[in-house]
């Protein structure tokens, strides 16, 4: 795919949704961090149902520590790997209070040093909470980028590196959100909705189905 087509795709997605929002319901960097961590191998809908109740009781590091591990597990028991995630969250709360004044750090290196936080989670926190031009690559973005030829890569890191190269700075703040939403609702894994796709004339997917 040439760069002109990539720019046209980004412009079309921008015009369709100028201010895209994450589907995780969060109101602070701390909530973004915890919800994103919980969303691994789960769905945003399931996470939102759990955190809707949880955050009313505890949505800061001191409050979660006061709530305690057992009660935290109870609140997130419907989420995959909830036991491990609960332990990581409690440990994160301790670290944030001991090393960062209870605040969520705004550097990737520091975020990735937290228990259970990988590059994708760190990128989402940096982008969503601090408006930094990072592009997290999840399964939806990985699929869309490879299928459309926007950014071909054998793994998520390779795709991320190419996106940072191909996507101009002015689009990088919202690129992750546009691509996630497109992959989640249009460029589906088994049956992509090519017929109603906003960028069907620009996408280079060889097997797209358009009647």
Automatic annotation (TrEMBL):
Molecular-function GO term, any one: DNA N-glycosylase activity
Name of the protein in its database record: Endonuclease III
EC assignment: 4.2.99.18
Enzyme superclass (EC): lyase
Function of the molecule: DNA repair enzyme that has both DNA N-glycosylase activity and AP-lyase activity. The DNA N-glycosylase activity releases various damaged pyrimidines from DNA by cleaving the N-glycosidic bond, leaving an AP (apurinic/apyrimidinic) site. The AP-lyase activity cleaves the phosphodiester bond 3' to the AP site by a beta-elimination, leaving a 3'-terminal unsaturated sugar and a product with a terminal 5'-phosphate.
Gene Ontology terms describing biological process: base-excision repair, AP site formation
Keyword set includes Protein transport: no
Gene name tied to this protein: nth
Pfam family, one: HhH-GPD
UniProt cross-references to CDD domains, sorted A to Z: ENDO3c
Entry keyword set: 4Fe-4S, DNA damage, DNA repair, DNA-binding, Endonuclease, Glycosidase, Hydrolase, Iron, Iron-sulfur, Lyase, Metal-binding, Nuclease
Database matches in PANTHER family: A/G-SPECIFIC ADENINE GLYCOSYLASE/ENDONUCLEASE III, ENDONUCLEASE III
Cofactor binding note from Swiss-Prot or TrEMBL: Binds 1 [4Fe-4S] cluster.
SMART domains: ENDO3c, FES
Annotated positions binding [4Fe-4S] cluster: 187, 194, 197, 203
Cofactor(s) listed in the protein's UniProt record: [4Fe-4S] cluster
Domain HhH-GPD: 38-185
Membrane-spanning residues: none
